[in-house]
Amino acid sequence: MEEQFEMIAKTAHGFEEILAKELLQLGAQKIEKGVRSVRFVGDKGFMYKANLCLRTAIRILKPVAKVTAQNDNQLYRAMYNFPWETYLDIDQTFYFGVTLHSDYFSHSLFIAQKTKDALVDRFRKLESRRPSVDKEDPDIRFHIHVYQDQFSISIDSSGKSLHQRGYKTATNIAPINEVLAAGMLLLSGWDGQSDLLDPMCGSGTIAIEAAMIACNIPVNINRKEFAFEKWNDWDEALYLKIEESSLNKIRSFEHKIVGYDKSPSAVEKATENVANANLSDFIEIRHTDFFKTKKENEGFLQLVFNPPYGERLNIEMESFYENIGNTLKRGYPASHAWFITSNIPALKHVGLRPSRKIHLYNGKLESRLVKYEMYEGTKKIHKLRS
Q: Strand order of the sheet with strand 93-101?
């Protein structure tokens, strides 16, 4: 039986609850929510599955040691005594990421440098030569979390951020992060049981993530590699077994996912990304101006989108957000519309009262995910019928 160990799934602010739910559904044990992170327990196969299947995780860390230090000398000695050679071969490259919350140390770069010195000196003593640092694409990426005098050393099993799914080769001016798109969809309750429209689809990320959720497709199935493939205990046969099991859980999808964009270049890029994700059978991308449209079918429709915030695009925001509200009111009865924006003042120009507001971040931009409910007839009539 495989050894069980603790892992940490890193995520974005506001996604801790849905990430914990994802982990529970995958079969994780001892799940504990933190700040932008969720701790859990599983074996090596589960670590592979978490990287392959978790939609709202940014990376999966495996803690391997805790040390204590209150000054430079204690830090160097503790890191020198750590058996780095257990996890890093002499011919592999490495890099340290540091998260720092301490009264004893003030610079994360200093901690990374001091730890690198200790690692290098230990290898020189053991093997008379040293491994090299690679900031861009290291073979082994270590993370050091510092809280006061407590140092937690972890190995990053993911490598490049898990938002890099592998399907997006073309982007527009302000692309949405894949993890953010998946988190928005899950927060909206999207489960593939209705039609879905992204009326401002850009490079197609929301539509692609929606189709993957609807069909229960492992979200990182198109990714070229994970960091754990360079670990000395890499088990390719076990990974392929996990991958096959996950692919066997794909389900059918009977509804429509559509993306609109009024930019021909965005439509071209979105269509290319949909094809890269092998989802052209489930997603239709159209060259369409949302403000000139109406809902096409009877029955419930879910809209999820990422409109411009005014950060990178030169648009008159007040009238733009007013047009969003008018289009929804005029043409989209029996719909729920969810969208994210960092332009909080512009929301009052939508002219609708949101039924939900969720505090999120789009990168470093403080944002709101808002929900508007459109009814057939008036809201009062809807309540009488329900």
A: 29-33, 37-42, 5-10, 59-68, 150-156, 140-147, 93-101, 132-133
Q: Which residues contact 81 (CB under 8 A, 6 or more apart)?
A: none
Cα–Cα distance measured from residue 22 to residue 341, given in angstroms and rounded to the nearest whole number: 25
Q: 21: number of CA atoms within 13 Å, CB side? A: 10
Amino acid at 148: Q
Distance CA 269, CA 265 (A): 6
25: phi then psi, degrees, rounded to nearest 5: -65, -30
What pLDDT, in 10s, does the model give residues 283-304? Answer: 999 999 999 999 999 899 999 9
- pLDDT tens-digit profile of 59-116? 999 999 999 999 999 999 999 999 999 999 999 999 999 999 999 999 999 999 999 9
3-state SS class at 249? coil
Strands of 111-178, DSSP E: 132-133, 140-147, 150-156
Q: Are strands 283-287 and 301-305 parallel, antiparallel or unpaired?
A: unpaired
Give the span between the Cα atoms of 381 and 358, in whole angstroms.
27
Tokens at 174, concatenated: 């302000």
Q: Token digits for 381? A: 């009539």
Tell me which H or E stretch contains 338. Answer: strand 335-341
Q: Domains plus CATH for the chain?
A: 5-156 (3.30.2130.30), 178-217+250-385 (3.40.50.150)
CB of 14 within 8 A of CB of 358?
yes
Please name every residue paired with 372 in a beta bridge, in sequence order, or none if there are none. Answer: 337
Cα dihedral across residues 237, 239, 244, 249: positive or negative: positive
> Phi and psi at residue 41, in whole multiples of 5°?
-125, 140
CA 164 to chain CA centroid, Å, is 8
Smallest Cα–Cα separation from 285: which of 352, 196, 346? 196
Report field, pTM of the whole predicted structure over 0.85: yes
> How many Cβ atoms are within 10 Å of 67's Cβ, its own excluded?
17
Grouping H, G, I as helix, E, B as strand and the rest as coil, residue 318 is: helix
Q: Taking a C-beta distance cutoff of 8 angstroms, is the pair 296, 267 a contact?
A: no
Please tell me the distance from the alpha carbon of residue 111 to that of residue 361, in angstroms, as a whole number.
28
Backbone angles phi and psi of 373, in degrees to 5: -105, 120
Whether 26 and 46 have beta carbons less than 8 Å apart is answered as yes
Which helix (H) or strand (E) is 196 found in, with range?
Answer: strand 195-198
